[in-house]
Each structure stands twice: as structure tokens, then as C-alpha cells.
Amino acid sequence: MSLTPEGVTLVSHPLIQHKLTIMREKETASSTFRNLLKEISLLLGYEVTRDLPLIDVEIETPVARTTSGKLAGRKLCIFSILRAGEGLAQGLLELIPSARVGHVGLYRDHKSLEAVEYYFKAPTHLDERFCLTVDPMLATGNSAIAALDRIKEAGAKDIRFLCLLAAPEGLKALREAHPDVPIYTAAIDEKLNEKGYIIPGLGDAGDRIFGTK
Predict the structure, then answer these.
(1) Which CATH number belongs to the domain containing residue 54 in this structure?
(2) Long-range contacts of 83-87 (CB under 8 A, 24+ apart)
(3) N or C terminus of the chain with fewer C-beta within 10 Å?
(4) Closest Cα to residue 182, out of 160, 156, 166?
(5) Nearest CA-CA partner of 104 in 115, 92, 91, 93
(6) DSSP state, residue 104
(7) What range does the domain containing 39 cover?
(8) What tens-digit pLDDT sequence spans the chain (213 residues)?
(9) For the chain, how many structural domains are there in total?
């Protein structure tokens, strides 16, 4: 794609692109893949949380009293789309250790490519939280759309979606289904193949994270 679609932020930092290139290589070991995903999640986390609101609070340093900024409102929530979302979520929790964590369990039916839910657990007061939904791959968009449908049903209003790779087809579908949800990604790849995998992509993210097939 020559232009980044409306509502999509492409985070093209050189360190992210370098690490992503190593992750794409088929010979990269699962342990290296996991570590790189965690490192990239930290870098992406800075961008997706760039405009979180702050409030001024009075504090005392070792030498003086002053006013400084702290995050406003309830602790934010990281929603992990299982199972591959855990790779991004764990890195983000190192950046924001106080965050609450929700889980949406989905699997893709290999014939219809539709998402099937098998698990959902969320913190309370979602309507008062910044909710960051994560999944390494945005392919057809079906899983992301189903997850966001469910998260909104639970009350969330301020939602962003973060992925490592996105296909044009998935971006289009997600923007049409949830135009109010900004999307952040490290790369927009060429297309989907006939099986719904991103090309050139990096294979099945869950399998590469956990060393399964």
C-alpha cells in the first residue's frame, strides 16, 4: 500500500523494522521470536499511549516540592486476543505494570475463516478505562472485529487496536466495522493468500511464539 489508510498509524521506527525483519525469517528460533516481540511491544507501546491524559499532582522530591504529571483516571486495560496476543500483552505489561488485563479467546474456523469465541474475561468499569486490544496479526480482520464487538458489549468506549502486521484486507474490514477504533501497526504487508495468511507475513504468530504447529 502506498498510503496509510485513515485511522491507521504506521509505526516505522528503524529499531522496530530491524527487529521485525529478524522475526520474519523462517529460521528464527521461538525464543528469539518471543524476545523480539516483547522488545517491539515496548516500542509500539510508547506510540499507542502517546496522548494518554495526565493530571497535575503535588509531590516532594529529595530537594523540593513540585507539581508533576500522573496518568488520569482508572488504570488502563490491555485486552489480549488469545493466544498470540499474549506475546504483545506481556511486553506491554512491563511498560505499564499497573494495567488491568482482559482476555478474549478466539479461534479461526479454517473453512469459513470466521472467528469463534471460547473465552471472555474483563476487568470492571471498562467504560472508564483506556482499553488497548492487542493481537500480532491483523489478517482477515474477523478475529479483531469479533473481539472488539465483545469488548464494546462489555462497556468499553475508549479503545485502540495494536498489531505487529496488518494486511490491507484486514485494515479495510476493521475500519468498516469499527471506524471509531484507531489502529496501530508496525507494518502493512502486501495481501492475504487463499488460506487467509498475510503475505509476506511471518507465518502463524501463535505457533512461532509457543513453538507449536
Answers:
(1) 3.40.50.2020
(2) 83/206, 83/209, 83/210, 84/135, 84/136, 84/137, 84/204, 84/205, 84/206, 84/209, 85/134, 85/135, 85/136, 86/209, 87/34, 87/37, 87/38, 87/41, 87/136, 87/205, 87/209
(3) C
(4) 160
(5) 115
(6) E
(7) 8-210
(8) 346 889 999 999 999 999 999 999 999 999 999 999 999 999 999 999 999 999 999 999 999 999 999 988 888 999 999 988 998 999 999 999 999 999 999 877 777 767 788 999 999 999 999 999 999 999 999 999 999 999 999 999 999 999 999 999 999 999 999 999 999 999 999 999 998 899 999 988 888 988 887
(9) 1
Q: How many helices (H) and strands (E) does the chain have?
A: 6, 12
The DSSP H or E segment spanning 164 is strand 158-166
Instruction: Give the closest residue to 206 by CA, choosing from 41, 37, 92, 39.
Output: 37
Q: Which amino acid is at 204?
A: D
At 47 the three-state DSSP class reads: helix
Task: Give the total residue count for the chain.
Answer: 213
- The CA radius of gyration of the chain, in Å to the nearest whole number, is 18
* Residue 196 covered by a domain: yes
Assign 64 to helix, strand or coil.
coil
Inside any domain, residue 2: no
Residue written as grid cell 474477523 = 142
**Is the distance from CB of 94 to CB of 38 less than 8 angstroms?**
yes
